From TrEMBL:
Function: Transcriptional regulator.
Domain Ribbon-helix-helix protein CopG: 3-42
Heme listed as a keyword: no
Pfam families: NikR_C, RHH_1
HAMAP family: NikR
Keyword Transcription: yes
Residue span(s) of domain Transcription factor NikR nickel binding C-terminal: 54-128
Name of the protein in question: Putative nickel-responsive regulator
Residues covered by region (Disordered): 141-160
Superkingdom as given in the UniProt entry: Bacteria
């Protein structure tokens, strides 16, 4: 571990200490490490579309908008390869919040989200991505295949 010193003016130091308290950090080092990680991840996502990401696409829409729910379902089915899960929350009589959990090539996830959020009737749409590195692993599962034998196959897992 490397150690370095940071100088802050009094006003910025006070704001930083308030931040530490508000988010229950035990010390300044923990907070600085988290802030640096977040900035590096954001920078990576903004400047590189070549990698893979996991993330969410969240938006609010009116289910009274003509055939919007049907169009959204169709778009989601067309992107089943990057869509992991969907959560829908009914906010009131007219509006729903939907969150899609995604994983896949960052470029594809961005294009999918931009296309989805741009649809008429979608309000307050936002994507949140985290870069990940995938490794291809071949292994057996204890579960049984259709032939009732343990099976082996290869697929990707995010590397930790």
């Amino acid at each position: 571990m490397q150690r370095f010193t940071v100088s802050l003016d009094d006003d910025l130091a006070e704001l930083f200490d308030q931040f530490l308290h508000r988010f229950s950090y035990n010390n300044r080092s923990e907070a600085i490490r988290d802030l640096i990680r977040k900035k590096l991840e954001t920078d990576e996502l903004e400047h590189s579309l070549d990698g893979h990401s996991v993330g969410t696409i969240t938006y609010v829409y009116s289910h009274k908008e003509r055939e919007l729910a049907t169009r959204l379902a169709r778009i989601q089915h067309q992107h089943h390869d990057v869509l992991v899960s969907t959560l829908q929350v009914h906010l009131d009589h007219d509006h729903c919040l939907e969150t899609l959990v995604t994983r896949g090539p960052t470029k594809e996830l961005r294009a999918f989200s931009e296309n989805l959020i741009a649809k008429p009737g979608i309000r307050h749409g936002q994507i949140y991505l985290l870069p990940v590195v995938y490794e291809v692993a071949s292994h057996s599962h204890n579960g049984l295949s259709t032939s009732h034998e343990p099976h082996q196959h290869a697929h990707t897992h995010p590397a930790t």
